[in-house]
Structure formats: C-alpha cells, structure tokens
C-alpha cells in the first residue's frame, strides 16, 4: 500500500513539473506573439496616419521588450511625424545603443539632425550608416546634399554618382548630379543628367524646372519654355522673374 501511495505521489509531482515547464514555454510563446501583434498594430496605425495609436502600440512592444531596436526606430519615425524631434532623436539613439550596426537608425538620426540644421552631426551619422552598409543609396544621396551645401562640389558629385551606380533607375541621383554640373557651368552634362532623371521619372517636376533654367542659360528658349510649362503643370511655383525673362520668346 505504501508503495502504491509513493508511486502516485511521484506521478503527481512529475505531472506538476511537466505542467510548469509547459506553462513557461507557453508564456514565452504568447509573449513573442504579443510583441509581434503590437508591433504590427503600431505599424498599421502609422500607415493609416493614426500616430497616437502607433505610439501607444510601440510603447507596448517596448514594455514587453525594451531592447527591441526596430520598435525604437519606428517610434522615433512616428515622433518625427508628430514634430517631437527631441523624442525622435532619443529613440534613434536608443536603437543605436542596442544595435550599433543598425544602419537605418544611423541614417534616420542623420536626417533628424539635418532637419534641425546640425549638419556636422548629420554627416557623421550618414558616414556611420555607409560604414555599415556601403550600398545605402539614400545615405550616399544625403551625404552628397551636405557636401553640395558646403560648396564641396566634387565630393557631392562623387556621392551622387555612387547612387546611380548602385541603383541605375535612381532619378533623384541623376537630378542631383545635374545640379552639380549646372553649378560647375557644365550645361551639357547638366542637361543630360536632368533629362536622364526625366527618362526614369517623366513627372519629376523639379527636373523639368531645372531643365528650363539650363536651356534658358544655353539660349535654347523654346525648350526652356516647354519645360517651364511642364513644371507649372506638375505643380511647381515658377519664379516670376524667370517667367518675365521667358516672355519675349513666347
């Protein structure tokens, strides 16, 4: 009898241990599902433009997993859309502390600093992103923009050229190359670059406008008028002084 009782006690203990172990695994699984569910709800809310809901859901993700670098990044993006730039920068920095090799977080931190006028720090972050991910097209492009603003035209051109080497259908890269060539007074190359941007993206309004100016400088007034008209149709507000200069040729 004692043997039977002892057997049943051992059996109950074994079942309890199995139940506890199973519960632990189930809880971990449910937690993982819950994190992903909240992350997806946050992402979808941001896509719909419901930014407050997105913040709430990303905060739920981070309550469950404070080291979720992607949630910190996305929360930063949402804060940026809300105009809360200090919180935006803070979230990007948290993402980088969790994962220093997170190129996208470095890039977004660069954009945030650039928008605040902190160009030196923006440049550092774009360069960090490119150290991690050398084929990061937008990082090359934005670094080129900073070089261009500093008057470092050769460096800017080199960055823009990298964008189209990596992504041959990158219209913005060709457009920015055209801007450098025009600044260098190389109208032929500028026109070719702006036209290449339009070949890729025919409704690129800024490229039409820049072509209009380049053709005017080249004294090809009919083409200048044609591209000026296209730019206006696409919503560009053309400088009234430029329109006055075109009037005699219409």
Strand and helix order: HHHHHHHHHHHHH
Secondary-structure arrangement, i.e. CATH architecture of the domain at 26-134: Alpha Horseshoe
Helix proportion range: over 70%
- Tally of individual helices: 13
Q: What would CATH call the homologous superfamily of the domain at 26-134?
A: Tetratricopeptide repeat domain
Major sheet description: none
Rg on CA atoms, Å: 28 Å
Question: For the record, what CATH class of the domain at 26-134 applies?
Answer: Mainly Alpha
Total DSSP E strands: 0
Low-confidence segments: 2-23
Taking all residues together, what is the mean pLDDT? 91
Distance between the termini: 113 Å
Strand content: under 5%
Briefly say what this structure is.
The chain is 81% helix and 0% strand. It is an all-alpha fold and 250 residues long.
Give an account of the 3D structure.
With about 250 residues, the chain is mostly helical. It has a domain of about 110 residues: Alpha Horseshoe (Serine Threonine Protein Phosphatase 5, Tetratricopeptide repeat), CATH 1.25.40.10. Helix content is about 80%, strand content about 0%. The protein contains 13 helices and no strands. Helix 7 packs antiparallel against helix 8, helix 9 runs antiparallel to helix 10 and helix 10 runs antiparallel to helix 11. The longest helix has about 45 residues.
């Amino acid at each position: 009898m004692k043997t039977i009782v002892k057997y049943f006690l051992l059996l109950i203990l074994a079942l309890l241990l199995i139940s506890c172990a199973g519960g632990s695994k189930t809880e971990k699984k449910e937690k993982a599902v819950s994190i992903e569910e909240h992350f997806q709800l946050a992402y979808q809310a941001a896509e719909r433009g419901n930014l407050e809901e997105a913040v709430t859901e990303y905060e739920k993700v981070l309550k469950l997993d404070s080291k979720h670098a992607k949630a910190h990044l996305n929360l930063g993006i949402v804060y940026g859309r809300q105009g809360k730039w200090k919180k935006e920068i803070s979230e990007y920095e948290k993402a980088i502390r969790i994962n220093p090799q997170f190129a996208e977080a470095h890039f977004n931190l660069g954009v945030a600093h650039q928008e605040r006028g902190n160009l030196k720090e923006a440049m550092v972050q774009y360069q960090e992103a490119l150290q991690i991910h050398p084929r990061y097209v937008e990082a090359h492009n934005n670094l080129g923009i900073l070089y261009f603003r500093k008057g470092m035209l050769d460096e800017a051109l080199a960055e823009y050229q990298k964008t189209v080497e990596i992504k041959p259908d990158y219209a913005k890269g060709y457009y920015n190359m055209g801007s450098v060539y025009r600044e260098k007074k190389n109208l032929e190359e500028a026109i070719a670059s702006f036209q290449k941007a339009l070949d890729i993206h025919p409704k690129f309004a800024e490229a039409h406008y820049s072509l209009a100016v380049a053709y005017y400088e080249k004294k090809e007034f009919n083409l200048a008028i044609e591209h000026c008209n296209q730019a206006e149709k696409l919503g560009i507000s053309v400088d009234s002084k430029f329109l006055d200069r075109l009037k005699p040729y219409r």
